[in-house]
# Entry
Amino acid sequence: MSSSKDAHQLVLMQTIFGIISKRELSIDQQIEEILKAGCSLFGEQIGIVSRIERDNYYIEHVHAPGFDIYKGQKFALENTFCSIMVTSNKPLSIADVKNSDYRKHPCTEMGLESYIGMSITVEGKRFGTLNFSGASPKDSSFRETDLQFMATLCDWIGNVLGYSQMMDRLNVLASQDSLTEVANRSSILDFIERCLERHRIDKNYMFSILFIDLDRFKQVNDQLGHHTGDLMLNQVAQRLQGVMRPSDRLGRYGGDEFIVILENTTKEEAREAAARIQELLGRPFTVKGQEIVIGSSIGIANNDSVESAAELIDIADRSMYKEKNAKY
# Structure
């Protein structure tokens, strides 16, 4: 039996190596296949990658056909067997829950009769756990080689999650303005194109853009220096973010120009939003202990009869300059 299991484990190890070598598989698909392989090896029905934050246990990835367990589910950490691992900082294996020291643990209320788990570390920090469990006890205890196999799985999953987090950071950097940390020009253009595509599919979907140009900002740079100007731009972005709805999108188009995308907004609502923003940006800013008053000119464009983001921005840009020329 032992040699048979060892052979099965070797085959699964080779299978998993093949899984993580397949570049065409997404991160979710790779982890799903790893969970399937783990369930097969241990004869369990449920495979979970959890994320632990303070006293909460979140299911990040799961393979549990036939069970009402799903990604995103949240539990109190103390009600999971994983809490024991967190406390002891050691792996945990329970072949027969009812005949173990854990028979009164809250997790038994979920019907789990066997369990094996180990912590997952991502970039040197504990991320959560990898665990396999089932509704039936095991005929024999888990072996040391089982824990070794778990350690290998945890290392692989930790590497996969680490790569995923690195790519997420790179994607953020690629779409984020480095100074203000709002969306950058390319990201905002891409979002407008997606909004236009949505409008082509659903004619009831409407949106507007506000093209914001700061007034007297050149004077700030010339008289107080570019560092003060950069601090000003950060404060402008923070003020704008403070009045955005969850569905709105803010981006820095370049220099002292910002764009706000307002989804599902009428023309009148867009004009009202522009008026609120102008009032907001007209209030004094305090930069390095000095009070500065600027202001803004805002052009508005709706997605009526336009074919591209560039065309829509051009309409809003011309509208903005018309307003600015009327003021100065």
Notes: The CA atoms of residues 215 and 294 lie 6 Å apart. The mean pLDDT is 90.
